[in-house]
Amino acid sequence: MKITRRRFTTSAVAGLAATLTPAKAQQPQKLTVRTDFPPWGMHAGLHLAVDNGSLKDAGLDVDVSDGKGSSLVMQQIAAGDIDVGWVQLGPMAAARGKGLPITSIAGFVRKSDLGGLVPRDSNIKTVKDLEGKKVAYSAASSWGPLLDVFLEAGGTSRDKIDLVSVDSSSLLSVYLSKQADCTLTTYPFAKPLADRQRPSNGLLFSDVGLNFPSYGLVVTQSTLASREEALKRFVPVLVKSWEYIYSGHVDEAVAAMMRQRAAEKLDAEILKGQIVGYQPFFATPRTKDKRFGWQSDDDWKDTLAILERTKLVTPGTKTTEYYTNKFVPS
Question: Is 256 exposed, middle or buried (0-12, 13-18, 19+ CB in 10 A)?
Fold first, then answer.
């Protein structure tokens, strides 16, 4: 199928650009944005917006670079090395609770993407079914402090499971080689990769009544104040980019990623599987009628309650210290 490049820029973005003075329009505002890892499906919104010129149309000159993990990217944001990070918001909240001066300016993956991969042909259907099974996880990942919360909500505990802690880079290979009956990971990221060798189902964090926000945009408090005009332009473009992708343009987003990161020799089928797989995770019951990027205060309260239980944040912290919706279009 031939994929046609087209711009998703609508009257809202055009109207935003029209409000700029000629002088500002001639001098696009620069922003540096860093993703969590080398390119994969959840970077599609950014790459599409660069590829089709929508960021440029909004008066922005955006440099998108690849990171080496959410934690490192957050440290680089806090140090002022980059302006905006595309990272997991759950770990961001934990870092914020420990004093890192960062905050979320848009939440896209608002339903928890954490989950366990289990073989489709196995008898593992619930968390409790993991009892007596070998389960791989990474203590250094988001799963580390959340494991006991997940198991308890699923009606079991770690002493009833054969837990194996491995490096995060080995989570999938250990599972695919059948050295583990389950691997705890970010489910919609890993499933398209696993299905090629070991077709799998998921035991989701959200299945046991828990939520933990995932991918969104993060900045420092100082950037929030000093780069307000640029952020007012940037966030709506990314919101529209993801809305455009999920309105029937996944293939176009994949093609944009292939062009933007041609040297990476990306697998188009895997990228598409990840983008499609993440769509159900873009909304929670409290955000389903809101634009992409909009964050629910009640969802954040639930998240902070989990983080308080795991002692990752101090009890009594205010949700408004962790997020703002001021840049998300209504």
Answer: buried
- The pLDDT mean for the chain works out to 92
Distance CA 244, CA 248 (A): 7
Nearest-angstrom CA–CA distance, 33 and 181: 37
Torsion, Cα 199 204 207 210, to 10 degrees, reads 180
3-state SS assignment for residue 14: helix
Residues 238 and 304 in one domain: yes
Is it the case that residue 42 has pLDDT exceeding 90? yes
Q: Environment class of residue 2 by beta-carbon count within 10 Å: exposed (0-12), middle (13-18) or buried (19+)? A: exposed
Q: Residue 225 belongs to what domain range?
A: 11-111+213-321
Residue 26 confidence (pLDDT) = 63
DSSP for 105-141 reads: EEES--S--EEEEEETTSS--SGGGGTTSEEEE-TTS
Q: Do the domain assignments include residue 1?
A: no
Which conformational region is residue 290 in: left (phi greater than 0), alpha (psi within -120 to 50 degrees), or beta? Answer: beta
Q: Does residue 2 lie in a domain region?
A: no
Structure tokens at 256: 């944009």
pLDDT at 130 over 80: yes
Per-residue confidence band for 316, with pLDDT thresholds at 50, 70 and 90: confident
Number of H helices, E strands in the chain: 14, 10
* Contact of 284 with 210, CB cutoff 8 Å: no
Same domain? For 298 and 226 the reply is: yes
Please check whether residues 219 and 278 belong to one and the same domain: yes
Of 167, 182, 208, the last residue of a domain is 208
Please say if the pLDDT value at position 317 is more than 50: yes
pLDDT at 6 over 70: no
Could you say which of 208, 228, 261 is where a domain stops?
208
In percent, how much of the chain has pLDDT > 70?
92
| CATH code, 156 | 3.40.190.10
Question: Is 328 domain-assigned?
Answer: no
Structure-block tokens of residue 106: 């848009």
